[in-house]
Specification:
The complex is a heterodimer of chains A (423) and B (404). In chain A, 33% of the residues lie in helices and 19% in strands. Chain A has 423 residues and is α/β, with parallel strands linked by helices. Chain A has a single domain (6-111, 146-421), classed as Peroxisomal Thiolase, Chain A, domain 1 (3-Layer(aba) Sandwich), CATH 3.40.47. In chain A, strands 1, 2, 5, 6, 7, 9, 10, 11, 12, 15 and 16 form an eleven-stranded mixed sheet that branches. A three-stranded mixed sheet of chain A has the order 3-4-8, with no helix packed on it. A two-stranded antiparallel sheet of chain A has the order 13-14. In chain A, strand 1 and strand 2 (18-19) form a beta hairpin. In chain A, helix 7 (172-185) crosses helix 14 (352-366) and helix 10 packs across helix 11. The two termini of chain A are 14 Å apart. In chain A, 65% of the residues are buried. Chain B contains eleven helices and 17 strands. Chain B is of the alpha/beta class. Chain B folds into two domains: 5-246, Thiolase/Chalcone synthase (Peroxisomal Thiolase, Chain A, domain 1); 258-401, Thiolase/Chalcone synthase (Peroxisomal Thiolase, Chain A, domain 1, 3-Layer(aba) Sandwich). In chain B, strands 1, 2, 5, 6, 7, 9, 10, 11, 12, 14, 16 and 17 form a twelve-stranded mixed sheet that branches. The interface between A and B is large, with 86 and 91 residues.
Chain lengths: 423, 404
């Protein structure tokens, strides 16, 4: 191994509840929720009618009319987040060799809003088959290949190094950061602008999750609809957003006197080889991912101060990961605060992993564990400390982040303070 | 020590041949699989030729329960993975599940499946959308389905960078091998030969509108007028060289070098990134340009892109000093599937000492390339370079090398 280490030096978040790290952290640390009845379209025909939407006007973020037409909302989110992350890092990115700067963006479903909308046009409301090419917009190919989002970010930050989209469903946001960290460790890049984005609140996405009853049908109380680990939970709440981070090689970051949020100390992903949407209750594969990530970090499970959960709020997920924590951390699982910010910002599919990693870095920054909102009565099978309702002051030096997704992907990442890991 | 990754199995679904043997026989002989679109009514569209995989009946190869939940690209990928594992003589049931992973690329996911569900949504209503839509169309579907079918619990992964993704997936597979997983199923199969997918691809503005199969896709030709799109690709078994040796596996070659770059923003006066990708991949392989016996070109058949690729090749190797070929003139461009198929052809070129042909092209001498024409070229091949580029400026280069 090269011995190269990777740290986060810049963060920007676009999450329901507000654009920017400050409004994001205020929401989390105050335990407020940003779920509401869907406003983007009339949700009346659908089973699930709540979502965590962002009030985002592209005009307010410097996009011109042509960019607004060309860029799907996912790409807009990614570009805004990338710009903000680079600014936050204080890195003079234009002075670097662009070939040493890479970009990885994760996304589960890419430009799905754009595709849904354009399909509706070329098919004239679903009536034409084959569809009419004369009504296709010129940038439809950008929606067809979601990697266009990564290209837009690379152009925005002036990167010319290794660049890709990582698309492993709901673990995309963790896997994208993991991929980026590997690029720096192996020496392929010195800086990677890495994160994830998704804007899936469109009729086709809502309909497809309706069809498998994965999203909550709760209609009465939209701001309390996302209830991870609670006995009354009955599905996730679809969200949207992006988080992008500047990852740097530790030595370079220290030489320029960068503010270091956290080190990406370990990462692993494993597959359950079981079912595209189902989970085995024992959590064995997620536990294995956790074990390998801790091993790569050379951190003992008992050092974990906080677990940022996948915590989607489906019946099977929350039990699955509870089992995985016990399996990988033993008794320490019972002593470790676990929380799901999806209770507040919903589940933005590929985006949420990076948003949650940003939350982990901010938890370390503030020594505050964000809560699990709406958790009033534990599921008896979910018997860990899920930090209900209110944030908790706690020294947070080492964080475990996990994710689980369709396709069977199980990912784990360990964040730590680099000065506490001198080797 | 950094582990060496070798290819021990190949599974192919290509427009000019279903299965490795059919594909390679056709490719050696210069037989193309480009013909008028049959999978949907393309008669009203400007582009009406495609590379469709011939004679593929999913029900002959896969259990019936998988059919309603999978797009064509996933069915092709599952079968290609089965064939690659069989070719490598891997008994997945006998290996520890965590020692096997799956890393694939996708350009556009299960687009045909998605088209059907969008049609139901907008013509009949949301309640008619399939329960399988949530996972049949997303980009991760092939990795997920292969891992489930073959019981592989090791690292999973999915890389999306349009055509370049096919090489990025192989590189990510090598990374996972270097991190300690001995076997990764990798590569890519793409398919979007459906009305909605066709319209999306035509919108990219790079598709040929010719109706003559032999004149439609002419990279590095003065008459280049865009490409023909196709479906298919290749799934490969990448193994840790030690693990492969200890089980006595037949080895096609080493995945020896790789690099990726992205071009500067359009309109920039900076050089595109392909040359840099080639140089970095060669350095990664510990190779110099003189070691390279053949280059498998990306072959966009768009004059501006052909110029950029020829400039990168001649900048590294000198004008006319390395054989260049584009067997994808026989298949069309297959999204992420194209580069793993080229890697397959490169490994077979190493095995057989034969560079497969570029068909139909009258090379424009202005490009300064030694393009291997009709008939192919017998030549010893120890080291091959495969290039792939994706929409948005993605560049990837991979070096394959003989191990004997």
């Amino acid at each position: 191994m090269t011995g190269r280490r990777v740290v986060i030096t810049g963060i920007e978040v676009l999450a329901p509840g507000g654009v920017g790290v400050k409004s994001f952290w205020d929401l989390l640390s105050e335990g407020r929720t940003a779920t509401r009845g869907i406003t983007f379209f009339d949700p009346a025909p659908f089973r699930s009618r709540v979502a965590a939407e962002i009030d985002f006007l592209p005009e307010e973020h410097g996009f011109g009319p042509q960019e607004i037409r060309r860029l799907d909302r996912t790409a807009q989110f990614a570009v805004v987040a990338a710009r903000g992350a680079v600014a936050d890092s204080g890195l003079a990115i234009d002075e670097l060799d662009p070939h040493r700067v890479g970009v990885t963006i994760g996304s589960a479903v890419g430009a799905t809003m754009g595709l849904d909308q354009e399909y509706r046009v070329v098919s004239d409301g679903g009536r034409l088959d084959p569809v009419d090419h004369r009504y296709a917009v010129a940038h439809l190919y950008d929606y067809f290949v979601p990697s266009s989002v990564t290209a837009e970010v690379a152009w925005t930050v002036g990167a010319e190094g290794p660049s890709a989209m990582v698309s492993t469903g709901c673990t995309s946001g963790i896997d994208s950061i993991g991929y980026a960290a590997d690029l720096i460790r192996e020496g392929s890049a010195d800086v990677v602008v890495a994160g994830s984005a998704d804007a899936p609140i469109s009729p086709i996405t809502v309909a497809c999750f309706d069809a498998i009853k994965a999203t909550t049908p709760r209609l009465d109380d939209p701001d309390r609809a996302s209830r991870p680990f609670d006995r009354s939970r009955n599905g996730f709440v679809l969200g949207e957003g992006a988080a992008v981070m500047v990852l740097e090689e530790l030595g370079g970051a220290r030489r320029r006197g960068a503010h270091i949020y956290a080190e990406i100390a370990g990462y692993a992903t494993r597959s359950n080889a079981y079912h595209m949407t189902g989970l085995r209750p024992d959590g064995a594969e997620m536990a294995e991912a956790i074990r390998v990530a801790l091993d790569e970090a050379r951190i003992n499970g008992t050092e974990v101060d906080y677990i940022n959960a996948h915590g989607s709020g489906t019946k099977q997920n929350d039990r699955h990961e509870t089992a995985a924590y016990k399996r990988s951390l033993g008794d320490h699982a019972y002593r470790t605060p676990v929380s799901s910010i999806k209770s507040m910002v919903g589940h933005s599919l590929g985006a949420i992993g990076s948003i949650e990693i940003a939350a982990c870095a901010l938890a370390m920054e503030n020594n505050v564990v964000p809560p699990t909102a709406n958790l009033h009565e534990h599921d008896p099978e979910c018997d860990l400390d899920y930090v209900p309702l209110t944030a908790r002051d706690r020294t947070v030096d080492t964080v475990l982040k996990v994710g689980s997704g369709f396709g069977g992907f199980q990912s784990a990442m360990v964040l730590a303070r680099p000065e506490r890991r001198a080797r | 020590m950094t582990a060496t990754a070798v290819v021990t199995g190949l599974g192919v679904t290509a427009p000019n041949g279903l299965g490795l043997t059919d594909y390679w026989d056709a490719t050696r002989a210069g037989r193309a699989g480009i013909a008028p679109v049959t999978r949907f009514d393309a008669s009203t569209y400007p582009s009406r030729l495609a590379g469709e995989v011939p004679g593929f009946h999913a029900a002959d190869h896969l259990p019936g329960r998988l059919l309603p939940q999978t797009d064509r690209m996933t069915r092709l990928a599952l079968v290609a993975a089965d064939w690659a594992l069989a070719d490598a003589e891997i008994d997945t049931a006998a290996l520890p599940a965590f020692d096997m992973g799956v890393v694939t690329a996708s350009s556009s996911g299960g687009f045909e499946f998605g088209e059907g569900e969008l049609r139901k949504l907008w013509s009949l209503g949301g309640r008619h959308v399939s329960a399988y839509q949530s996972f049949a169309w997303f980009y991760a579907v092939n990795s997920g389905q292969i891992s489930i079918r073959r019981g592989m619990k090791g690292p999973g992964g999915v890389v999306v960078s349009d055509q370049a993704g096919g090489l990025d997936a192989l590189a990510q597979a090598r990374r996972q091998i270097r991190k300690g997983t001995p076997l990764i199923v990798t590569g890519a199969v793409d398919a979007a030969v459906c009305s909605w997918g066709w319209v999306a691809q035509m919108a990219g503005g790079r598709m040929s509108t010719s109706d003559e199969p032999a004149r439609a896709y002419l990279p590095f030709d003065a008459e280049a007028r865009g490409h023909v799109a196709g479906e298919g690709g290749a799934i490969l078994i990448l193994e840790d060289a030690e693990a492969a040796r200890s089980r006595g596996a037949r080895v096609y070659g080493e995945f020896a070098g790789y690099a990726a770059t992205i071009d500067p923003k359009p309109g920039s006066d900076r050089e595109p990134g392909l040359r840099r990708a080639i140089e970095t991949a060669l350095a990664d392989a510990g190779a110099v340009p003189a070691d390279v016996d053949v280059v498998f070109a990306d072959a966009a058949a768009v004059p501006e892109l052909d110029r950029a690729e020829a400039a990168a090749i001649t900048a590294v190797f000198g004008a006319g000093s390395v054989p260049v070929t584009a067997p994808k003139t026989m298949t069309g461009r297959l999204g992420s599937g194209a580069a793993p198929l080229d890697v397959t052809a490169a490994l077979l070129a190493i095995r057989d000492g034969f560079i497969p042909p570029t068909v139909n092209v009258r090379p424009d001498p202005g490009y300064g390339l030694d393009l291997v024409g009709a008939g192919g070229r017998p030549a010893p091949v120890r080291t091959a370079l495969v290039l792939a580029r994706g929409h948005g400026g993605f560049n990837a280069a991979a070096v394959l090398r003989a191990t004997n």
